[in-house]
């Protein structure tokens, strides 16, 4: 549409310019010649100077005209009458006015338009409008400038490029120019500068884009967070469901638990009880604390102390305490386990309490302990009876059989003396009878000694010496006896007997099991206690739990007399048995005493029997 051919308008302007310049130079020349002639002809300098001034003024005017020709020449389009007023009006308009000829070349541009395009008005003339268009707006302008476009009232936002290269925007509207307006054939454009608005719009659009980007990012963030929240909520919901389920299970377990379980707050108020606990306390939860308040202060204080101890120690506390059963109206003993739970800040939260009814167990234990005590008493009683019985039998054998044998020996001895010088068969039979009677007497002595060693009547030390002597005779083991604190003549017969039997059994064990080379017996008689130790250097006890009755009997004897026994043994090193008995003994049972009294000869006969049958030599030999 617009072609860059601008020769038409340009040739008109150039012709006018040529004429104007010619006219100006001619006028200057004429003025100069006239001035010189006037100066030469004039006598008076005044008029000559005036003429020179006039000529100079004309020249200056001509020069000015010469300089201003281009500006003055702009509106030199063919003008209809009144067109001057229109141009003057357009020149002062606040909007850009751009008159283009049919080829799109500039015929007229007002000052506002020149300012918008950043060019002097004079330099705009003849320039094609498309020179100033930014590329992206060329189509738009083409649309604007299409023939008859403005007849349909098109107005466009166009982007233009200023002379300094910057971009500007304008709303472009227009109308066809024609001779009717006093304008040349072409287009008259009206440009309203909207650069600032556009810049603001662009900045706004950039901001909007930035905002949208941010919103998009934020929305994405929020969507992600939302997703995460949903996932977390799902997980939480699942956890809550699982917790509810596990709470339910826990509740079921607790309610079916046969052990009393209850919770207490830090002030020791019961906050939860299971069924077994309600059964144990004999009250439902809603009355538990009220019943608790009615308990004796001492008992309540005991419960409180255990609670506070658990919180203080921050760990499990076990206590045995009587618990009042409200329904049965009785105290039953319980073992209560209290475990404190704390808040995250460390303050006490609650106590988990487990209470186990041990009343039945306690009663059984007590019954067992009582029967054990009775058993021990019985054992002691039996040992005493056994000793007394042995003594009685020994006495009977001595007094009856022994005396008869002695009498028989005396009689047969007399007979033997008389028949000894007659080597008859009768004499030989008498000699045989004497030998048999002697053997029987020795056997009786041995039985009596086994039943009740006669040396016991001489005191514990004497009895132990006799025992060790006998032991040496039947084994290769070297023996030592250390005694401290006296001879033990004044010791209670039960103590003497218990120690004697313990040493006797220990020596038997050494002989049977130890394969020892030495055995040492120490007897310590203190003011209140009597102790004996039997120590060997043998093989030691190999079996961790020996099953024999020898050691057990020693233990039982000691327990019956309120004493104790300790056996230490190291395999390959030896065995040591220690027995300690108090000298103050428990009151003996009536049974054995009565029996002894009934017998009428509590050991006296036996002692006499031992003395006479075994003779002083027997006791001496035993040492
Ligand atoms: N001095 C000892 N040296 C080695 N072993 C011993 C000794 N005393 C006891 N024992 C072991 O202890 C067990 C139990 O001894 P005891 O109660 O006297 O029963 P018993 O002698 O009838 O076996 C013996 O069988 C033996 O194995
Ligand atoms: Mg034994």
From TrEMBL:
<dbReference type="InterPro" id="IPR003594">
    <property type="entry name" value="HATPase_dom"/>
</dbReference>
<dbReference type="InterPro" id="IPR000014">
    <property type="entry name" value="PAS"/>
</dbReference>
<feature type="transmembrane region" description="Helical">
    <location>
        <begin position="20"/>
        <end position="39"/>
    </location>
</feature>
<feature type="region of interest" description="Disordered">
    <location>
        <begin position="592"/>
        <end position="623"/>
    </location>
</feature>
<dbReference type="InterPro" id="IPR011712">
    <property type="entry name" value="Sig_transdc_His_kin_sub3_dim/P"/>
</dbReference>
<dbReference type="Pfam" id="PF08448">
    <property type="entry name" value="PAS_4"/>
</dbReference>
<dbReference type="InterPro" id="IPR050482">
    <property type="entry name" value="Sensor_HK_TwoCompSys"/>
</dbReference>
<keyword id="KW-0472">Membrane</keyword>
<protein>
    <submittedName>
        <fullName>PAS domain S-box protein</fullName>
    </submittedName>
</protein>
<dbReference type="InterPro" id="IPR001610">
    <property type="entry name" value="PAC"/>
</dbReference>
<feature type="domain" description="PAC">
    <location>
        <begin position="154"/>
        <end position="206"/>
    </location>
</feature>
<dbReference type="InterPro" id="IPR035965">
    <property type="entry name" value="PAS-like_dom_sf"/>
</dbReference>
<keyword id="KW-0808">Transferase</keyword>
<dbReference type="InterPro" id="IPR013656">
    <property type="entry name" value="PAS_4"/>
</dbReference>
<feature type="domain" description="PAS">
    <location>
        <begin position="82"/>
        <end position="127"/>
    </location>
</feature>
<dbReference type="Pfam" id="PF07730">
    <property type="entry name" value="HisKA_3"/>
</dbReference>
<dbReference type="GO" id="GO:0016020">
    <property type="term" value="C:membrane"/>
</dbReference>
<dbReference type="InterPro" id="IPR036890">
    <property type="entry name" value="HATPase_C_sf"/>
</dbReference>
<dbReference type="GO" id="GO:0046983">
    <property type="term" value="F:protein dimerization activity"/>
</dbReference>
<feature type="compositionally biased region" description="Low complexity">
    <location>
        <begin position="604"/>
        <end position="623"/>
    </location>
</feature>
<dbReference type="Pfam" id="PF02518">
    <property type="entry name" value="HATPase_c"/>
</dbReference>
<dbReference type="GO" id="GO:0000155">
    <property type="term" value="F:phosphorelay sensor kinase activity"/>
</dbReference>
<feature type="transmembrane region" description="Helical">
    <location>
        <begin position="46"/>
        <end position="66"/>
    </location>
</feature>
<keyword id="KW-0902">Two-component regulatory system</keyword>
<keyword id="KW-1133">Transmembrane helix</keyword>
<keyword id="KW-0812">Transmembrane</keyword>
<keyword id="KW-0418">Kinase</keyword>
<dbReference type="InterPro" id="IPR000700">
    <property type="entry name" value="PAS-assoc_C"/>
</dbReference>
């Amino acid at each position: 549409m617009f072609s860059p051919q601008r020769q038409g308008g340009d040739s008109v302007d150039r012709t006018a310019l040529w004429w104007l310049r010619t006219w100006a130079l001619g006028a200057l020349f004429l003025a100069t010649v006239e001035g010189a002639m006037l100066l030469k002809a004039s006598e008076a300098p005044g008029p000559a100077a005036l003429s020179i001034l006039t000529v100079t003024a004309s020249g200056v005017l001509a020069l000015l005209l010469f300089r201003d020709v281009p500006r003055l020449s702009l509106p030199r389009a063919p003008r209809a009458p009144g067109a001057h007023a229109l141009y003057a009006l357009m020149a002062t308009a606040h909007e850009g006015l751009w008159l283009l000829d049919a080829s799109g070349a500039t015929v007229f541009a007002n000052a506002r338009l020149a300012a918008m395009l950043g060019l002097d008005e004079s330099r705009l003339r003849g320039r094609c409008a498309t020179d100033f268009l930014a590329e992206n707006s060329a189509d738009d302008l083409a649309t604007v400038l299409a023939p008859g476009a403005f007849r349909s009232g098109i107005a466009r936002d166009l982007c233009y490029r200023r002379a300094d290269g910057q971009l500007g925007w304008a709303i472009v509207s227009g109308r066809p120019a024609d001779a009717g307006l006093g304008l040349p054939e072409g287009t008259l454009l009206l440009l309203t500068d909207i650069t600032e608005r556009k810049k603001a719009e662009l900045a706004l659009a950039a901001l909007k884009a930035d905002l949208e980007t941010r919103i998009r990012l934020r929305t994405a963030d929020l969507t992600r967070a939302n997703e995460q929240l949903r996932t977390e909520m799902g997980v939480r919901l699942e956890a809550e469901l699982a917790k509810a389920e596990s709470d339910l299970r826990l509740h079921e377990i607790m309610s079916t638990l046969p052990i009393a379980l209850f919770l207490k707050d830090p002030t020791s108020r019961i906050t939860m009880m299971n069924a077994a606990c309600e059964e144990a306390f004999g009250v439902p939860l809603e009355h538990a604390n009220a019943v608790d308040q009615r308990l004796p202060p001492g008992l309540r204080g005991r419960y409180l102390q255990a609670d506070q101890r658990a919180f203080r120690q921050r760990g499990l506390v076990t206590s045995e305490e009587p618990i009042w059963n409200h329904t049965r109206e009785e105290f039953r003993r319980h073992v209560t386990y209290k475990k404190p739970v704390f808040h995250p800040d460390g303050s006490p939260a609650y106590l988990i309490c487990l209470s186990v009814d041990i009343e039945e167990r306690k009663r059984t234990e007590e019954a067992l302990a009582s029967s054990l005590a009775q058993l021990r008493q019985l054992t002691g009683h039996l040992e005493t009876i056994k000793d007394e019985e042995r003594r009685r039998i020994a006495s009977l054998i001595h007094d009856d059989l022994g005396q008869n044998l002695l009498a028989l020996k005396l009689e047969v001895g007399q007979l033997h003396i008389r028949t000894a010088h007659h080597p008859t068969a009768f004499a030989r039979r008498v000699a045989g009878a004497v030998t048999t009677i002697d053997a029987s007497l020795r056997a009786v002595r041995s039985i009596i000694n086994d039943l009740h060693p006669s040396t016991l009547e001489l005191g514990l030390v004497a009895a132990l010496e006799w025992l060790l002597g006998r032991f040496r005779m039947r084994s290769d083991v070297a023996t030592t006896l250390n005694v401290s604190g006296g001879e033990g003549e004044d010791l209670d017969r039960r103590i003497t007997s218990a120690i004697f039997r313990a040493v006797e059994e220990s020596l038997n064990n050494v002989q049977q099991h130890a394969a020892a080379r030495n055995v040492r017996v120490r007897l310590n008689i203190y003011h209140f206690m009597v102790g004996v130790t039997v120590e060997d250097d043998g093989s030691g006890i190999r079996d961790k739990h020996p099953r024999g009755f020898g050691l057990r009997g020693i233990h039982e004897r000691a327990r019956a007399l309120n004493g104790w026994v300790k056996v230490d043994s190291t395999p390959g090193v030896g065995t040591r048995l220690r027995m300690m008995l108090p000298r103050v003994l428990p009151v003996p049972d009536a049974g054995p005493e009565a029996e002894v009294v009934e017998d009428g000869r509590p050991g006296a006969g036996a002692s006499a029997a031992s003395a006479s049958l075994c003779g002083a030599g027997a006791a001496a030999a035993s040492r």
